[in-house]
Amino acid sequence: MVIKNTKILLVEDNRDHLEMIQMVLSNEKLVNTIYSVTNGEEALDYLFRHGAYADKAQSPRPSLILLDIKLPRISGLEVLRQIKSDARLKSIPVVLLTTSTEKNEIIQGYEYGANSYVIKPLRFEELMYRVETIYNYWTMTNQLPVIENNGYPG
Amino acid sequence: MQPACPFSVGRTIPASSVYVGLLEKYHVHLIEVDPMELAFDNLQSLFQDIGDLVFITDLNGNIIDYNVSGKRLLGFSREEVLNRSLTDYWTDESKCRETLSWVMSEASLYVSNLEVCFRKKSGEDVDISLTLSKIKGTNGDVLGVVGVGRDITEKKKIEKAFKSLNQELENFIYTISHDLKSPVLSIEGYTSLLMRDYKERLDEKGWHYLERIQYNIHKMGMLLGDLLELSRSGRVIGELKEIDAGEIIHVILEDLNFQIRQREITVTVANNFPKIWCDRERITQVFENLFTNSIKFMGDQKNPAIDVGCYEREGYHEFFLKDNGIGIDPVYHDKIFGVFQRLEEIPSEGTGVGLTIARRIVENHNGRIWVVSEPGQGATFYFTLPKKPKRCE
């Protein structure tokens, strides 16, 4: 099976976790382009093509978003809410990343339209499996129809 | 012990039947030429000098006497309160009527240390610990009620401060253990990557160092997980619902099926489990922790067995879980419910927070948990749950 190059937007403020998740997603089995930002404001700038992200070619629309819940400036849940209330973005699957096992946050996430979530484990190996599984599900078995950038700003 | 005699009658014998009753109740006898005077002197000073508020009401709950300490506490003079209803001072009027009629009823002996609120003359409220008992005449007729109230404002203040400090501490533990997870994942992640990607370039010593880092970080991760679990068990208690306790046991036994079969444990479950008012998830955790604990400390018992059942007590259910494992020396019986108190001489998995969590959950349900055991004799864990749901504030 030929895997199409998947564009993933990774929103994660912890640079260590960012690097580790990038490593999992860019290993030889997966062919991906990863765009990463480290806070909620930047994530929205990227998705709505503001400021430094105005260039469509440099910041293409992702086909999967991995979004940390706890983010500086604008929270992950707020970013999620804005994604899911935008007609052009809401079809992009969003997977929440969290260290918390508190149900409330996750339930809130689902209320805002999150597609899935990953609780970051304390072992890298487990993180690797969890991210891979979620990646495989959302990019291969459950691929959404490609929608062209109709009416997309910029 | 006889309660303090609530007299304030001066030196003449009053006509009131209440006082006649009191005389009889407190065994005032004529023993000398002027005994009445002497007795009243003593009783009068006892009534006035005692540090607590003392009052007497008639059958209708109207105050017919009241001491100096009462004035000090509430600000009202004796004259101001005489013939007024107790409900004028006790802020919860319906509770006041209910309690008075209960105290005066045939069935009650007395009501002690009831925490109530009285209104002062200044308009402020004061917390009082109140003890009420009835006054009976020689023929057994109830004549009224005597009440003794102690100012517990300070106690309440300390309790409140203690509660808020405790809450703060729990939040702190929760936040810390939660926030520490991120760096633990980072350290674990990078050592894993070092071990995976730089294996060939590491000599034996370097590899050993990395292994020790990994071992310790895993241990730290486990401790953090337990700490988080523990602080959550104190912080969060869900809605109380009426749940079939037998069903909880049933679900747990299914979950633990593998461990039970692996260790060939005979589990006997009583068939009289009641419905209980509880937070289902939390009480499930209590039973599960007790089961896991028993399985863990089965030792080399040839015929391992666990019995689980329930006794009906007045006002509460008493659950028990009895095993025939290695048992626990009585010197450790309190210790095992403390944080991270695994008994060192017993090799086992885990960090030893299971029983602590169980205790916190049971106490949050206004129950009690304890163990009866001797080394080599197995252990029986007991815990209680009130039949009527009552939540901690």
Spell out the blueprint of helices and strands.
The complex is a heterodimer of chains A (154) and B (393).
Chain A: E1 6-11, H1 15-25, E2 32-37, H2 40-47, E3 64-68, H3 76-84, E4 94-98, H4 103-111, E5 116-119, H5 124-141
Helix pairs in contact in A: 1-5, 2-3
Chain B: H1 17-25, H2 35-49, E1 53-57, E2 63-66, H3 68-74, H4 78-81, H5 93-104, E3 110-119, E4 125-136, E5 142-151, H6 153-179, H7 181-197, H8 204-235, E6 241-244, H9 245-255, H10 257-262, E7 266-269, E8 275-278, H11 280-296, E9 305-313, E10 316-323, H12 354-364, E11 369-373, E12 379-386
Parallel strand pairs in B: 7-9
Antiparallel strand pairs in B: 1-2, 1-5, 3-4, 4-5, 6-8, 9-10, 10-12, 11-12
Helix pairs in contact in B: 6-8, 7-8, 8-12, 11-12
- Largest beta-sheet details of chain B: 5 strands, antiparallel
Distance between the termini of chain B: 34 Å
Task: From the alpha carbons, calculate the radius of gyration of chain B and give it in angstroms.
Answer: 31 Å
Shape of chain B: elongated
Structural class of chain B: alpha+beta
Instruction: State the major sheet of chain A.
Output: 5 strands, parallel
CATH architecture of chain A: 3-Layer(aba) Sandwich
Total helical elements of chain A:
5
As a percent range, the share of strand residues of chain A is: 15-25%
Helix content of chain B: 40-55%
Tally of contiguous helical segments of chain B:
12
The CA-CA distance between the termini of chain A, in Å, is: 34 Å
Spans of at least 5 consecutive residues with low confidence of chain B: 1-16, 29-33
Q: Greatest chain-chain interface?
A: A-B, 15 and 16 residues
